[in-house]
């Protein structure tokens, strides 16, 4: 789901809407923002780690087992 946000050069009118209409507009904007966030999280969850790396998304915090070369030799020599 591609979503682009554009910036307008001309500023929006500063006149305020009536109280109830203003509240409804704010609620609808919040609902749309929440829906976009949920959709993006869903789409990111479906991607493989390789696809996430391709798009430049940071990898998830997963436990990683890092064994350096010669570790067993060092451990055996400590015995």
Topology of helices and strands:
Elements: H1 19-46, H2 49-54, H3 71-78
Summarize the structure in words.
0% of the residues are buried. This protein has 79 residues and is mainly α. The protein has helices spanning 19-46, 49-54, 71-78. It has a domain at 17-59. 53% of the residues lie in helices and 0% in strands. The radius of gyration is 25 Å and the shape is rod-shaped.
Kindly provide the radius of gyration, computed on alpha-carbon positions and rounded to a whole number of angstroms: 25 Å
Tally of helical runs = 3
Distance separating the two termini: 58 Å
In total, how many beta strands?
A: 0
Shape, principal axes of CA atoms: rod-shaped
**Largest β-sheet summary:** none
Name the beta content range.
under 5%
């Amino acid at each position: 789901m591609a979503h682009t946000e554009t910036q307008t050069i001309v500023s929006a009118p500063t006149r305020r809407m009536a109280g109830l209409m203003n509240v409804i507009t704010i609620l609808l904007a919040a609902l749309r923002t929440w829906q976009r966030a949920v959709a993006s999280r869903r789409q990111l969850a479906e991607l493989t780690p390789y696809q996430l790396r391709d798009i430049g998304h940071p990898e998830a915090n997963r436990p990683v087992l890092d064994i350096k070369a010669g570790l067993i030799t060092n451990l055996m020599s400590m015995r």
